[in-house]
Design a protein that fits this description.
This protein has about 120 residues and is an alpha+beta fold. The protein is built from 5 helices and 5 strands; from the N terminus they run E-E-H-E-E-H-E-H-H-H. It has one domain. The protein is about 40% helix and about 20% strand.
């Protein structure tokens, strides 16, 4: 199972796949035109025009990917940390530290995309 993190940055989303999934990469290439996407090898993330975010998330959900961090997505209620449990369950114990590191870069309150509640749920 692939977790896909969307981090909003001005007019683009930084999209990170955990773990690498060739089907998810093909979905990115199929949904987002080449002029609206680029791969950043240093950060190991795709940068896509923000207008394609919702459409891409829908395509990735059809591939059974877990979507995290898309605008307007908030987790509340008694089972609010369930999303984090599901991500870690799906990536498995050997990849859990990598998933935690990537998610904490997005959720940590000291970042521009941070959210205190999401970080608590992640922990």
């Amino acid at each position: 199972m692939t977790a896909v993190m969307f981090e909003h940055r001005d007019q683009v989303y930084a999209v990170t796949l955990l773990p690498y999934d060739p089907l998810a990469v093909e979905a990115i290439k199929a949904v987002v035109p080449s002029f609206a996407r680029r791969w950043s090898p240093l950060q190991r993330e795709w940068l896509i025009d923000a207008v394609y975010g919702q459409r891409l998330a829908a395509a990735l959900r059809r591939l059974d990917c877990t979507i995290v961090g898309l605008d307007g997505q908030r987790y509340h209620g008694a089972n609010s940390a369930e999303w984090a449990r599901e991500v870690f369950r799906r990536v498995g114990p050997e990849r859990a530290p990598l998933a935690y590191k990537a998610l904490s870069r997005i959720c940590h309150p000291d970042t521009s995309t941070g959210d205190h509640r999401l970080m608590q749920e992640l922990n």
